[in-house]
Structure formats: structure tokens, C-alpha cells
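Checklist before submission:
- one chain only
- standard amino acids only
- sequence pasted in full

Submission:
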Amino acid sequence: MLILISDAFDPSLPDRLSSFGEVTDDKSRLAEAEIVLIRSKTKCTREYLDSAPKLKMIIRGGVGLDNVDRDHAGQRGIIVDNTPEASSVAVAELAMALMLASINHVVAGHNGMVQGKWLKKELKRSELYRKTLGLIGIGRIGGEVAVRARAFGMEIVAHDTQVDSSPIAEILPLDQVLARADYISLHTPLTDQTRQMINADTIAKMKQGVIVVNTARGGCVDEAAMARALEAGRVRCYATDVWTSDPPPADCPLLGAPNMLMAPHIGASSKENLLRIGDLVVEKITNYVNKRK
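Returned file contents:
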């Protein structure tokens, strides 16, 4: 059995998988692979899958599966799995870090010091305490964000079409969450229903000066509408770790927009999370091999 590691995982993973067969990161050997391990970079399109006649299993190290053509994989009898339980803490901590960095002007303060500027009077901080956090999606990651936000004394409201009630948040219709929130944090998969759900119309329903944090999927936000809202001051800051493509194209309107806080899709890249993902990958392949016997 050939296992192809197509994206970046913990360096210890190849040795841990060696007992199952040959392990390679040579993407030119896709046609030989029985199992492919991916994260967000590899796109398992119909063409990709048809280039892998021996493929029986895809494991996505992470939460979303929007980079896999699951319908075509199902028609081919290919098992598609992921590791959503591994990444919750890592992504939730980054969401909190982006919130804190945005209101405390951490980047501007640091850059000012590097440039020999003392911006004590210019940089006015704000607090999370007693502010309202609106979560769009309160699954594993959104729930972890809610726990951490409550420790900062925030009020938590949330919208989730799959959730009727929650012990850690008040569940409300989307319009009410948008209207009440001082901070909005996205935690939804990218689907036909969530694609560009943050757009000119939904932004108009938000508080003036809202801060929007996105550690979900770049495609959930209309980038051009967000850029216009930042330029107009309607949105105080858009802090994002996710993009419509990795990396974003040079003409992405957000790259030149004011009051952006940007990260290169590192939400799930903590060393602890990569080890957790490795543990789950080994477990899933073990189960797969045992079922074949």
C-alpha cells in the first residue's frame, strides 16, 4: 500500500505510518496511491480523483472538506474523512488572538517601535470586557471561542442553523446577531448557503465600527464588499486567516484595504494540533486496514 502525504503534516508522521506500507510525499506518484493525506492546499477535484485509479481513502487533516469533490469520490467508492476534533483549540485561540490584536493595535504598536515611533497617544485601545461577541456557527470551534470569550467577560450571542439552544450562548436569528454584536467571529463551513454570507446587505445590518474575525473560510465573505466597508469605516477591522485561495491573488481587494489584520492560513498549524492530527490519521488508517482484513 502506498500512502501519499500531499500537504504539510507533522514531520513524525511518515515514520508513524511506515508500518502500513510505503509512505511518500512525491505527488507524481498519485496514480499509485491507495491513501492520500491532504490539508487545505491540495484540491481533490474530479480530475484529481480520476488521476488516482488505485485511490481508496482521502484523509483531510483539518475541519472542512470543501476542497474535496465528495460526490465524485462517493461514486468512485473512495472513503473521505477528516479530523475536525483535532483543530478546535488551535483555531479558537487564533480567533481570540486576532480579536485581541485588532483592538490593542499590537501590529501598529510593534511596527511603530521598529520605525522609531512612540505612538502612545495615537493608539487608543479598547477592551473585550462587557462587549457582545456574535458567533456565526457554534460547533466545535465556535464553542471553544465562546468559552474563552466568556472568560474575558463578553456576552455571547450566536446564529447556527443546526443549533436550537446552547449553554454558553444565546441562539438568535442571524439579523439579530448582526445587529447586537460588537465583534463577529465566523465559524461555518463553506457551502452554497454560507458562500459570501457576509456581503453588502449583511454588513449594513451590523453595528457601525464592528470588528469581524474570520477563521472559517475566505469564501464566506464578499471580499469587495468588505473592502468597501473598511474604506468607509463601516467595519472597524477585518481580521482574517482565510482567503478565497491560498495565497490570495495580487488583485484581492482586501490586500490594499485599510484596517486589515491578515494571517496566512495558520489557524490549524500549531505544533500541538499537528500532533493531534497525526494521532487521528494513524487511528483512521489503522481502522481502515483492520476492516480490509
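Reviewer check: The chain has a mean pLDDT of 96.
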